[in-house]
Amino acid sequence: MSRDRSLDIAVTGVYARFPAVADLDDWWEAMLAGRVLTTRLDRDGLLAAGVPADLVDDPDYVPVRGLLADADRFDNTLFRISGRDAELMDPQHRLMLEAAWAALEDAGTAGCGDRITTGVYASGSGSGYLRTMLAGGPLDPLTLDQALHGTEPDFVAGLISYKLGLTGPALGVQTACSSSLVGVHLAVQALLNGDCDQAVVVAAGIDFPQGGHLHVPGGIQSVTGDCRPFDAAADGVVAGSGGAAVVLRRLADAVEEGAEPYGVLLGTAINNDGAEKAGFYAPSQTGQEAVIRAALAAADVDGESIGYLEAHATGTRVGDPIEWSAASTALAAAGARPGQVAVGALKAAVGHLDAASGLAGLIRAMRVVKEGVVPPVAGFTALNPLLETEDSPLYVPTEATAWSGPQPRRAGVSSFGIGGTNAHVVVEAPPPPPATGARPRRDRLVVLSAADPEALTRTAGRLAEHLHRDEPDLADVAYTLVTGRAALPERLAVTGRTSAEVAERLTRDAEAVRGRVPADGPAPVVFLLPGQGTQQPGMAAPLAAALSGFDDALTEVLDAVDPELSERLGRALYDTDFPAEDLAATALAQPALFAVGYAAGRALTALGVTPAALVGHSLGELTAACLAGTFGLADAVRFVAARGRAMQDCPPGAMLALGCDAATARDLLREADAELEVATVNSADSCTVAGTPQEVRRFADLLGDRVFHRILRTSHAFHSALIAPALPELARVLDGITLHSPVVPYAGNLTGRLIDPGEPVPAQTYVAQARQPVRFGDALADVLGRFPGAVAVEVGPGRVLTGLAEAAGMAGVPLCPLRDGRGEAEVLTALGTLWTWGQPIALDRLAGADGYPVHLPGYAFGGRRWLAPEVRVAAATPQGPDPASEATGTAPTGAASAEATTTGSGTAPGRSGPDPAVLVPKLWAEVLGHPELDDDSDFFALGGDSLLITQLARRIHDEWGLRVPLREMLAGRTLARQTAIVQDTLRRHRAAEGDPTGHPS
Questions:
Q1: Which candidate in 149, 352, 855, 930 is catalytic?
Q2: Which domains does the chain have, with CATH numbers?
Q3: Residue 465: CB partners within 8 Å, gap ≥ 6?
């Protein structure tokens, strides 16, 4: 009978940092090779790390450890943590932040805190970092408070939830060595109870400083420096440093979303030995056996189905035989046959990772059942004769072998803590990935983001390498990066049809669009709606392919048109082979351009690009007016169709573009005695004139090379006297249409200014608009005056209006320039560009988002080395370059620098003291640990928070006795504003004391 899988839990994300390896793939290769990854440390290195000389020189000191390189580096910028907070934070907490972030990215759910309730279960070892700080003497109360929050295990789960925006339970789990596997059990229970939909279990074990150990005869630590679990030569444990995180989901949810689990947790159990053992530190066979039995029962599987056991396996003379006997008894009683279960012992390779050891063992067991390969126990020589091997289900593998155990592949994982809290987990190989079927080869938008430009470059490089090497389906890559990664300030976007193509473009600046989200939020967006002359056959096809919602909006337009015109419009808009000369006819071109502009504008708005204003050119004003709410759609369609027909019936005409202003154009017309009119004024040095074809050609010939000129591809002289015959028909149609006040500002071509919401729009406007010049340049100027820094998006085919907007000083993005035959790529590039500029585009709703979540390389963490001055003082490290200022070359921050630089402490108001313009930047640098500041520096963007504001206020009070208003300081985020607040407060105090100038003495 098959198991009930409704209680199974999928592991959807994994991240780990282990000693002496670059990543998890490198680590797995080391596991298969049976490599020992601990390091024998030299005396100079130990002293430099801060290990006391008398300890290093003790003959019983064993200088061996599973050493974690760069354990003191931390990417504080990513987590918006100030430099001062970073240097006071235990390296374990730093690593757990990064590990949780990376595991969620691997699971494809980073940045999804608003749609997935995620719990955090965090475990850390005791803080040697805090102990080292305190060894240098008492810390001042504010520093001690900061240090406790950054080192005590109570706070790290909450910190992760806060920094990553996670709203589920946040628990610190502390049961010594078994902490992280107990955390897995608690997370599983929370998922099954509905407390959360996803859980991150994260742990770290990093001693400070990272050194060896002092061997005590009879103790549990190895005298040789070799950890040899279940070995005849076993003489104790060796410490290791590392950290790990896993992401858990209910299996049904993971499968429904197309996730690729690393493994499936079938059952978990925890218990405690109680008093039935030799002593508090001693293990209990009874307790260990009971927890394995309970986990098997929870999993609803028997021992006969288990083929691998990742043991706790410390390599101690007492602990190993007890664990072997407990596991043998429990598994045999549950049906396991002799010699059926291979035993794994990660500690033999990396040392004992303390609080992180259970998670590390789980990750190894999952890799075993997923890959179907059993690694050897590193460094194994011969079986410990004290082990009861007769009829035992257990055996120790001595080389990497293919799985030969039961199917499906299942394993157990044990973790036992000092004090007696035991945990066991049963894990199964993941189900095969769902068949996705062939997906169309089409252009895809691939986006990345980071907290700083260097991290973005590193992350792009890692992704490019992965795409080159593994060639995943680009649909899955694009989907995962859009739906499963947080959107950070530094951004990059590329398009491509294959992973190889995207990989090339990711590392070429010329082909990757890069941008940064403005600190004060995205710029206002202005839609530019083009007029006649920009139409192209098939111009709707790339928009329909790339822009979600475009097809539906276009269908609304076509449904509002009479059937005959609707059928011709449909062919003209989607068929690139539709005759261009037919589409150029005014009666078809104007409805076609209106339809495309309206549908694209609606689709963009639905994706989150909300226009602050709309500016249309000639016909485009009607599109703008409809999008703004002045015309209803049916009325707009009827009027545009009538306008196109009426203008087509007008006498033939021509238009000439000139590279000069309108006044110069009129002077030239008078000089040539030309019967032409200025039809459009597009900018300060661009306009058009219109009239009969003969007169336009004559005038062009007369101009010669005096002024740039170009005859436009148009059949009529729009906005001239030759359009007058159409005006009665326009008036007649408008007579039956009610115009409304707009809800979004849009530009009137007649006036060259924005029509504001609530402003009435007379119907006669659109009769005169067809005849009078288009004042597009004035409209752009009015927009820039109202919306400084606005971004112009040309919502339609071509890029003519984009060029005019850029010339006027606006950043411009043509939505569909139709330049290189890959129109879908152009639309995606435009959307990607807007996203890199911070526009809130819902990229997950783009047409073609048909991928599934896959595992991709995550954030390329960087960051500098962080070491608190208090630690350097206490550790009495040798003199030399300051690692805390390695990256910037600046002086150390924090208490040490404050003591060296603070002056005028305790100065009363009105007495001599530092100038606020000097002191406030200095205090910022000390409180934030960030010396590179300018007037626009943002306190909160640099990692500040309300607690640090109170510290800043306290330091200001120490200088002058002033009590600055905290509410104003919180609102005044920038350095310049906070300096001004302090200056104003000081001035008021001094004025109150009789110094009317209020100037610093």
A1: 352
A2: 9-428 (3.40.47.10), 444-510 (3.30.70.3290), 525-653+714-818 (3.40.366.10), 890-992 (1.10.1200.10)
A3: 503, 857
